[in-house]
Amino acid sequence: MSDRALLEVQDLCTYYGRSQALFNMSLKVPPTGAIAILGRNGAGKTTLLQSIAGELRPRKGRIVIDGEDCTHLPTERRAGRGLGYVPQQQSVFSGLSVRENLTIGAFANSDSHAIDQSLALFPKLADRLDQIAGTLSGGERKMLAIGRALLGGPKLLLLDEPTEGVWMGVIEEIADRLTNLRKNIALVIVEQHLELALSIANYVYVMDRGRISLEGPADKIKRSPELLRLLAP
Ligand SMILES: Nc1ncnc2c1ncn2[C@@H]1O[C@H](COP(=O)(O)OP(=O)(O)OP(=O)(O)O)[C@@H](O)[C@H]1O
Ligand SMILES: [Mg+2]
User: Fold this and answer.
1) How do residues 41-77 score in pLDDT, each as one tens digit?
2) Is the CB of 84 under 6 A from ligand 1?
3) What is the 3-state secondary structure (H, E, C) of the chain?
4) Is the pTM of this model over 0.85?
5) Of the four listed, 44, 106, 166, 227, which is most buried by Cβ atoms within 10 Å?
6) The domain at 7-88+154-231 falls in which architecture?
């Protein structure tokens, strides 16, 4: 991984009303490779990704994408700066077909083969183009969400629990695609499946009650006794 950061989060504080959810979070994401964000339920992982994506407005701190301060940029303009986001919930339009979901994802993409590329990544979707997304299985829905986010041609893709509720065989398929993707773009992955997260990620941040409590290269974090303590219920 190079030293240059594609995403830099500096001193971020996000609140829900008067309740503070993120406390001075800082992290750096290089242009390629994968960063994993780990932490117990309620640690603030989704809040962090929503703040980076622009769905939540931080009260303090900065979000810099590719050298540009995007802290006050609306979500859709961040997409134009190369940011893709696969949210934990409602990641697809459940009332629309697979084809319609992909067509919307490809809206801003001038490459007419972009949808074919997403379908090549997840061939299971190609058999289900006319199926309503709300009737897809959990795994198929995650594939559609990732395939759709990739149609925006992101340089940086935020993935909030891409394998949540997904059967083991499909988890491996998703993990394999993410491992390939990280060669060319930057991934920030929130993942409950510890082994999987540590196998995809180069670098890991562990959150505890809205703060980063532990960080380091995945190989090092894997052996840290602190890790299990921070993830214990
Ligand atoms: N809309 C909201 N209003 C008030 N508090 C919220 C809201 N969303 C989240 N929170 C609180 O903020 C904290 C962080 O929540 P967040 O969803 O970011 O955690 P998480 O690490 O993603 O958890 P999980 O692993 O369960 O998805 C929790 O205490 C949660 O209850
Ligand atoms: Mg969450």
Assistant:
1) 999 999 999 999 999 999 999 999 999 999 999 998 9
2) no
3) CCCCCCEEEEEEEEEECCEEEEEEEEEEECCCEEEEEEECCCCCHHHHHHHHHCCCCCCEEEEEECCEECCCCCHHHHHHCCEEEECCCCCCCCCCEHHHHHHHHCCCCCCCCHHHHHHHHCHHHHCCCCCEHHHCCHHHHHHHHHHHHHCCCCCEEEEECCCCCCCHHHHHHHHHHHHHHCCCCEEEEECCCHHHHHHHCCEEEEEECCEEEEEEEHHHHHCCHHHHHHHCC
4) yes
5) 44
6) 3-Layer(aba) Sandwich (3.40)
